[in-house]
Design brief:
152 residues, alpha+beta, 4-stranded antiparallel β-sheet, 3-stranded antiparallel β-sheet
């Protein structure tokens, strides 16, 4: 694992053959918005056929993962890892390090401007997530977040 405080183009964790792409001018596969113009955290999927799909929010990512894709199953899922001192009231579009989605801790139930759908925050550490959401009922693992998304 690479440390989080470094260059925003680092990958927190991924295999060399399945690395996330840097954000450029990709459109969100769910809503068509430019991903790099939306506030962090954002998501990315690599499908079985090697196609990369980009998402302007984790909410859009979760919806897409529940839909059938012409590219096959999602083989790798990445999300941006928010910094330790992240303030949910901010709205930055600066690229952040990618991490494997299953390795993150997620915060739900926060209010954020400029985020489509239900806001979800992603952190590489449960301690970092708990600092933003001191109430344990707002913290989710990736599997809990996926299960919550299918219950809607």
């Amino acid at each position: 694992l690479l440390e989080l405080g470094g260059c925003a183009t680092e990958v927190v964790s991924a295999t060399a053959s399945a690395s996330p792409e840097l954000l450029d001018a990709q459109e969100c596969d769910a809503c068509g918005m430019l991903v790099n113009e939306q506030p962090s955290p954002r998501g990315q999927v690599i499908y079985r056929d090697g196609t990369h799909a980009h998402f302007c929010s984790i909410g859009d990512l979760l919806v897409a993962l529940e839909a059938r894709s012409p590219h096959g199953s999602a083989e790798h899922v990445f999300v941006e890892s928010l910094p330790v001192d992240f303030d949910p009231r901010t709205s930055s579009t600066i690229p952040l390090p990618w991490m494997v989605a299953e390795e993150g801790t997620y915060v739900v139930g926060v209010s954020r401007e400029r985020v489509m759908g239900v806001p979800v925050l992603s952190f590489a550490s449960s301690d970092h997530a708990a600092a933003v959401a001191p109430h344990a009922n707002a913290l989710r693992s990736w599997s809990e977040l996926r299960l919550q998304a299918t219950d809607r």
